[in-house]
Design goal:
four-stranded antiparallel sheet; alpha+beta; 83 residues
Length: 83
């Protein structure tokens, strides 16, 4: 997701399903980028809307992102170190 808002979105950094959050102030606006699970999309969009949504672009994850998610879930650290 890529969004531009009029103020910093409150609570999005703690929102369920939001990963890779990036927030940069650009003049009087905030440039925000992140990925979010479909189950939590409504909450993320709500936080952006409350911050004065100026622009929103949603793109599906790329193949590399999908593989990264799968392999991160399968690493030994993710299941307590068991092999």
């Amino acid at each position: 997701m890529h969004a531009v808002t009029r103020s910093a979105p409150e609570g999005i950094d703690d929102a369920d399903g939001v990963v890779g959050l990036r927030i940069e102030r650009t003049g009087s606006l905030f440039d925000i980028g992140f990925a979010v699970d479909l189950e939590h999309l409504d909450g993320a969009i709500g936080a952006l809307h409350a911050a004065g949504l100026h622009a929103l672009t949603a793109t599906p994850p790329g193949l590399e992102d999908l593989f990264r998610r799968v392999y991160e879930e399968e690493t030994p650290e993710a299941d307590g170190g068991a092999l």
